[in-house]
Amino acid sequence: MRIKSTTSSALSLDLFCHVIDFFGDIGVCWRLARHLHRDFDLHVRLIVDDLSTFKRLVSAVDSTAASQNIDGVTVLKWDQSTLRNHYQKIADIVIEAFACTLPDFVVDMIKSTRPVWLDLEYLSAEAWVEECHARPSPHPRTGVDKSLFFPGFTEQTGGLIREPFLKSRRDAFLSDASSQNRWRERHGLPAIEKGTTDISLFCYPNAPFHTLLEAISSSKHPIRLFVTAGVDPASLDRAGISNYSFAYRVPFLSQEDYDHLLWTCSVNFVRGEDSLVRALWGGKPLIWHIYPQENAAHMAKLQAFLRRYTANLSPDYAQALENFTIMWNLRGREEGDVASLVDQDWVSMLVGLVSPLDVPNSSVGPSLELQALPLNLIAQTDLGTRLINFARQQIDLERRTTP
Ligand code: TRH
Question: pTM for the whole thing?
């Protein structure tokens, strides 16, 4: 369903994406670009420098094309030679994702046309985000206002990307075990088994794979591990993944199918940013492997998220989730006062994580309390709506203040 734009002409929007590493930059940008076009009726151009990584995510991408249209979104290859030929007119809204640096000729166009200019920042649960979000400040070279747009978990931030009817699609998928099993079969995964906990795994190469595999091996509670194609194959081979019959390798999925994987599993190990949000919307317990940063700067970000994520949970379950998450992010790099955690018995912590889920209809997912946070988030205004409302305010302001 298109959410009709409130003005006669739909707004146009340019989203610039520089792929740094892994899949999150283009993963977030593609999800946002398609969402703004499909659900808000915007004319969207996605300008991206690494089409081969994009093609891993969206097989329809032609990794050599200077310009192409995918699902109604115009995709321009961001390179010095061809972009200028295809980028003649600037949009009403220009977004640079994750503070990527725009080409000088685009900044020159911004100076003369003064569009709404946003820097879409990385997601964070930290409190300081609210002070920095959506505060226009004049760009030094052009004098044009540019605003940091921070995704977040509160109404005072940019919110989270959430398509219309996401929850009803998830609930429909979860309510029909046979459709889940058909989906599983299509992707080489075993059918749902009562009393068995299925865990999806998407993490960074420095994750303690071997310890997790050994813990699952020792668990009396039956656990199966669905290992996504986003996990570094060399790390898996080093951990001897092929020796564990409970481990299933999942092919690289479309973003829609990755959602289905998150929905059909009872616990999801996710990483980065976009899969974290998708797992939240899945409503199952998640273990977040945060993008590693120098001198463990990411740990403050992780702790801030854990505080929000576990706020509505029973203290025991909150502690199980927090301990396991800290251990998962620090194992092998014992630092600070959580070093003691890594010596704890992984098996008991893993079982502490999964056994409360082994309720009669465990295929439907966790105890209701675990859905509290995502449900609260589900009640919040989504990022797309907040972004467009902010842009319209800026456009109206510009019209009122331009002589
Ligand atoms: O791949 P990532 O680690 O991306 C990272 C993070 O975004 C990080 O914040 C950023 O700084 C860094 O990139 C540069 O994790 P993330 O964010 O979950 O993105 C993965 C994307 O891949 C997401 O859109 C989900 C998608 N995906 C699939 O579509 N199919 C799959 O099979 C898998 C495993 C993932």
Answer: 0.92
